[in-house]
Specification:
Strand content of chain B: under 5%
Low-confidence stretches of chain B: 1-17
Number of strands of chain B: 0
Order of helices and strands of chain A: H
Radius of gyration of chain A: 21 Å
Shape of chain A: rod-shaped
Structural class of chain B: mainly alpha
Helix content of chain A: over 70%
Largest interface: A-B, 25 and 35 residues
Structural class of chain A: mainly alpha
Number of strands of chain A: 0
Mean pLDDT of chain B: 85
Strand content of chain A: under 5%
Oligomer: heterodimer
Order of helices and strands of chain B: HHHHHHHHHH
Largest sheet of chain B: none
Distance between the termini of chain B: 41 Å
Number of helices of chain A: 1
Helix content of chain B: over 70%
Number of helices of chain B: 10
Shape of chain B: globular
Largest sheet of chain A: none
Mean pLDDT of chain A: 92
Low-confidence stretches of chain A: none
Chain lengths: ~50, ~250
């Protein structure tokens, strides 16, 4: 097995790990933002 | 004795003025924009530099390029755990719920970096030592850190934890701090297959600046990733609390 391939594969895997974990955290945060916004809108609607 | 100690701690307003945990958490929450821009730039440049612009080591060849992942990941794992331990200690003494959110997110970030360090180290070891794993002092102490952090992940991995479980997790992470100097000095205290440190804050580095620069870039990228993750976690937790308050009102 070529050493360059091993090195490239490891770099790609490591970066993919960081990318996936970061995007998952961002997605979770955006979902919470939506839930919060929905609750705020519901409360406003109830008050009006 | 415990109440006496707590009274003593409560009589230290200067410490509160110097270090405001709530302020620190809010600052971390605001840092997301900067860190999320810095992260791809630093990691992109770091990867390009390490793969294309630095010569491979004359003895080890291409596989030595794994150093640019392995070393910064190890710095972030150990540095992240040190911050986790210190914050856990503050949570235990001053009972600051906002900082415990940071410790929960940091546990996940540290776990990622420990796994990257061990995985890249194993691959590097297979091609330079001829084996995936040896039970030498550096590898074993790092493995113990992985086990401790995995335990911590299970203890405080979910939101809305009971206080007792969170306090137990904080005690474990403070105890785990003992392992950090063991990991760092293991290559000096014992004879190991792992090489001695090439980089120290107190000594002139024994490696060329052309190799240090991509390592530094990767470190900045990893550190920005950590800050981004903590920031997202803290902001998410703040939103959750606000939503609960609105629903309860």
């Amino acid at each position: 097995m070529s050493l360059s391939l091993v090195v490239w594969g490891t770099f790609v895997l490591a970066m993919a790990t960081l990318c996936v974990t970061y995007l998952r955290a961002l997605n979770r945060f955006r979902k919470r933002q939506k839930v919060y916004q929905k609750t705020v809108n519901e409360r406003r609607h109830e008050r009006s | 004795m415990l109440s006496l100690d707590r009274d003593y701690v409560n009589q230290l307003p200067l410490l509160f003025r110097l270090f405001k945990p709530q302020q620190l958490v809010l600052t971390l929450a605001k840092m997301h924009t900067v860190s999320s821009v810095l992260m791809p730039i630093a990691l992109g440049l770091g990867c390009l530099w390490s793969l294309f612009f630095v010569d491979a080591d004359s003895m080890q060849g291409e596989i030595s390029r794994l150093m640019y992942l392995h070393v910064p990941a190890a710095w972030c794992a150990l540095g992240g755990y040190a911050v986790l331990g210190v914050f856990s200690f503050i949570c235990l003494v001053w009972r600051t719920p906002t900082l415990s959110i940071v410790t929960q997110v940091l546990t996940r970030v540290v776990q990622t970096f420990i796994l990257i360090t061990l995985a890249t180290g194993m691959i590097w070891g297979k091609f330079s030592w001829g084996t995936w794993w040896v039970w030498d002092a550096r590898l074993t102490s790092m493995f113990i850190l992985l086990m401790m952090n995995t335990g911590l992940l299970h203890l405080m991995g979910e939101p809305g934890l009971p206080v007792d479980r969170l306090r137990a997790a904080h005690i474990v992470s403070v105890v785990g701090l003992v392992n950090l100097p063991i990991i760092h000095f293991s290559v000096e205290w014992w004879q190991t297959l792992h090489q001695i440190s090439s980089f120290s804050l107190s000594k002139t580095p024994t490696i060329e600046w052309q190799m240090l620069l991509p390592m530094f870039l990767m470190f900045v990228g990893f550190a920005s990733y950590s800050v981004s993750m903590v920031s997202l976690g803290v902001r998410g937790a703040m939103l959750r609390v606000r939503t609960y308050k609105l629903e309860a009102a």
